[in-house]
Structures are given as structure tokens and as C-alpha cells.
Amino acid sequence: MEAGARGMHWKLLILSCLLSDGMSQDFGQTQFICTSVPKDMDICAATLQNSVPGEDLKSTVMQLRETVLQQKETIMNQKETIRELTSKLTRCESQSASEPGDARVGGRRKETGTKNTMGDVSRGPTDTLAQLSQTLQSLKQRLENLEQFSRNNNSVQANSLKDLLQSKIDDLEKQVLSRVNGLEEGKPGMRNESEQRGRVESTLTSLHQRITDLEKGQKENRPLDKFQLTFPLRTNYMYAKVKKSLPEMYAFTVCMWLKSSASPGVGTPFSYAVPGQANELVLIEWGNNPMELLINDKVAKLPFLINDGKWHHICVTWTTRDGVWEAYQDGVMRGNGDSLAPYHPIKPQGVLILGQEQDTLGGGFDATQAFVGDMANFNIWDRKLSVGEIYNLATCSSKAQVGNVFSWLETNIEIYGGASKWTFEACRQLN
Q: SS in 3 state form for 20-41?
């Protein structure tokens, strides 16, 4: 009997040692107490009665609970870290996917953080030179007109200013020639291209302003509606602002003469923004997309082809009922459709800009969306014109009407940034 008891005691002692060595690794300083149990007695009942005192049991439970809470907190922190890393990875992937090209949603461009002023940063040097050459040619033509005017009026002041402007044009031509030579010799002089472009831009702006000052002296010699606006470069500062807002309109007709050879896209002939909606009424041809008419951010693609360097007359009509629209080029309807912002009247109290697309009310211009070319006879009516009325406008008929909402008069617009005015030529060529 004593031998059996001694065997049981040793077995319990060995079990106690094994448990102490194995479990202390998980729970730190832990005490295990072993008690001999009679052969016929329930082990669980005997343990509850004798094995572990109440305070020790409570302490062990609290330690276990604290350990579980610490592990739970660690898991939550790891989950939060994983979510943050996943979010950053998603943003990186989306930015990488959007870099190769531009994104447009509903006919609108995806915004970028930095805007350029000349609009040719992403273009090659050849495109920039071609654009400068076109500008210089336009300035030469205007100077020839000034020479003719000064000869007819014997103006000494006009002659002296003309000579000064001619000298500046010669200097600009030398700069262009220098850049051409640099390109042919392997681009050795392109290090300071941005600075050089800034100087050329500044000189051109000054030159346009001087010519505009000369042209202002001829206002008394021409009717106030016989003029055209010239936007020679893609910039974010050349534009014209209509002095008064549009009224609320449930229908409209917008007509104008345009001449442009810009590529890709002629830009934005006009944009009308109201508080809370920058795209209340916009006509835009941006990038390689067709020309679009936007009303309350809804888009209709127009079948216009006008960037051939010739004058074209375009008209767009629209009615709020069913959103029906029609597009006319040179007096002929080229396309029509419906469901363009149906039952949405054009809102009043906005800002009408010629030559730029507005991202904010009266501003937020982007050079890449600027109109490049000539514009004249921009008129707006608060009704749909008939086919005959549009044809009279396109053929410069004496029966042609002027807009009852906005009419093309020099006194109705303000010009900014070097956009210039000159006598309108298209109707003179047709008659």
C-alpha cells in the first residue's frame, strides 16, 4: 500500500514539473499545485475543493484576461496598418494608370495640378516654332494694314510707331531663326528654353498691346460691329469678357464666325459659368476630341470641321423641351439631336468669357483649352432661329439679324492679355 502511494506521489511530482516547465513559457511566473486524490474520488471536485486557493485562481484568470486583451489590441493595430498600406497602394496604382494619357468623364477633362501659360510645354520644339511663325505672320499682316492706314491719313505718329513695331518683329524673327539653327545643330542652345520662351512671350504681349493701341485710333473710321478678335497663342491670360450676364433662357441660338488652324483642337470659343456650375454653357474642341456643346455638364458632340485656316460660320440652336439641338456650319445643318439637358433652363447671373474655358466663375483658365484663331460676329438669341435666318447670317445678307441677348459690339466686351481687334474681313470677302 505504501509502495502504491509513493508511486502515485512521484507521478504527480513529475507531472507538476512538466507542467511548470511547459506552461511557464506562455504565462510567465505561474505556480501549479498538485494534490493527491483518492482513487474513487472525482478529480474535478477534488480540485475545486483542495487544489488551488481562491485568490490564486482569481489572479490566474486576470492574467489570462489581460493577455487576451493585449493580443486583441495588437491584432487591431495590425489590421489598421494593413488598411492604411492597402489604401496607399491603391492610390499609387491609380496614379500610375492615369499618367500615360488624359482622362475625360462626360466630355470634361481630368484636372491636373499645374497649369502652363503658353500651352506648348508638352509639345515639341517644332510645334512651338510653327506657332511663333504663324503669330509673326499675323502681326506682319496687321502692320501692313497699319501702313495703308497711315498712308491714307498722313499720320506721323502712326509711322513712327509702325517703324518701332517693325523693328521688334525683326528681332523676333531673328530669335526664331536662332532656335531653328540650334535645332539643326543638335539642340545645343535648348538649355534655357523656358527662359527664352518667357522672353518671347513677354515681347509678343507687348507687341500685341502696341498694335492694339494703334488700332484704337481707327475706331472712328469703322462701325462698332465690324471687328474681329484675334487670339494668336495658347495662353491662360488672353480672353474677352462680356460686360453683362445672360438672362434665364429656355431656348437659345449662338452664332459666330471662326477662323483657326490650331491642332489638336481649336480650343474654347466661349464659356458661360454660373455660381455652382462652371459648365453651364460651353463650346469646346479640346485635344483630339470633336467639338462639344456642354449644357449643365451634359455633352453633345458636334460635327464641325473648322481648323483649316479659313473663315467658317457656325450656329448652334437648343430648346429646353426634350433638349433638342441643331448644329449649322456655313449655313447648312450638319447635325442634330435631343436629350441634351432637357428641361434645364440656362441660369442667369453668370460670367460669359470668349476664348477661354472656365473652371471657376470668371477664372480657372487652362492654356491647353484656350481658343487660338480669329472670332467675329458672336451673337446670342433667346429663341431658336429659323433655317432662313441662319442662312442670312452665314451669307452676310443685309437681312441678317443681330442677337437680342448679346450683340457683337466693341462696347459690349472687355479685352485682356493682348487679344486684339481688327476690321472683320470674312463678309467683305463674300460680298
A: HHHHHHHHCCCCCCCCCCCCCC
What does the alpha-carbon distance between residue 14 and residue 21 come to, in Å, rounded to a whole number?
11
User: What pLDDT score was predicted for residue 309?
Assistant: 93
Average pLDDT of the chain, as a whole number: 75
> For residues 139 and 165, what is the distance between their CA atoms, to the nearest angstrom?
9
- DSSP assignment of 332-393 equals EEEEEE--SSTT-PBPSS-EEEES---SBTTB---GGGB--EEEEEEEEESSPPPHHHHHHH
Relative to beta strand 277-285, strand 332-337 is unpaired
Beta bridge partners of 312: 258
pTM over 0.85: no
d(CA 32, CA 56): 10
Contact 127, 120 (CB under 8 A): yes
Contact of 238 with 419, CB cutoff 8 Å: yes
One DSSP character per residue, 82-105 reads: HHHHHHHHHHHHHHHHHSSS--EE
Instruction: Measure the CA–CA gap between 69 and 194, rounded to whole angstroms.
Output: 62
Contact 400, 379 (CB under 8 A): no
Percent above pLDDT 70 for the chain? 52
362: left (phi over 0), alpha (psi -120 to 50) or beta: left
Does residue 423 sit in helix, strand or coil? strand
**Cell for 112?**
491636373
pLDDT digits (tens, 9 = 90+) for 106-158: 444 434 444 444 444 344 555 666 666 667 667 766 666 666 665 555 555 55
DSSP state of 322: G
Do the bridges between strand 227-231 and strand 332-337 make them parallel or antiparallel, or are there none, so unpaired? unpaired
Q: Say how far apart CA 431 and CA 418 lie, in whole Å.
A: 30
301-307: which pairs have CB atoms within 8 A and are 24 or more residues apart? 301/107, 302/327, 302/334, 302/335, 303/327, 303/329, 303/334, 303/335, 304/329, 304/334, 305/329, 306/258, 306/260, 306/266, 307/260, 307/261, 307/262, 307/263, 307/265, 307/266
- Rounded to the nearest angstrom, the gap between the alpha carbon of residue 133 and the centroid of all alpha carbons in its chain is 28
